């Protein structure tokens, strides 16, 4: 995983549902050249089959990710939400949901190891202080600074 990772930040996003939020982000990523045209349908279908909502000590997060075949450029898209959006809980029962306040979409292109990226990135979700900083950040650069230190630890 030697390719550079861009950190894209969108603060104060809003959506009526998890799939609307993911679809809107997918549209932006396609427009900006980060993903293939197949990305939106693939990530929405994956979210339906394998939900990505997670409960943390601070607030609910979601970590949508998809096979590398749908991605052109490495990036992490971080979205903070104006109001929580309901996601289904990763590994939960059918009706288990999480009120998500922050989303981290992981984009890995080529032959990269998505599981290595995901496992390494999950450390941010275990750090109360950094999660609080991300949610309370007054600028995209402040969020990028927090996320970059985790990407650096993973080696990307």
Could you give the topology of this structure?
Blueprint: E1 6-13, H1 18-31, H2 39-49, E2 53-54, E3 60-62, E4 75-88, E5 97-107, H3 114-121, H4 128-136, H5 140-154
Parallel strand pairs: 1-4, 3-5
Antiparallel strand pairs: 2-3, 4-5
Helix pairs in contact: 1-2, 3-5
Short description:
This protein is α/β, with parallel strands linked by helices.
Give a structural overview:
A five-stranded mixed β-sheet has the order 1-4-5-3-2, with helices on both faces. Strand 2 and strand 3 (60-62) form a beta hairpin. It has helices at 18-31, 39-49, 114-121, 128-136, 140-154; strands at residues 6-13, 53-54, 60-62, 75-88, 97-107. The protein is of the alpha/beta class. The protein is built from five helices and five strands; from the N terminus they run βααββββααα. The protein has a single domain, classed as 3-Layer(aba) Sandwich (Mannitol-specific EII, Chain A).
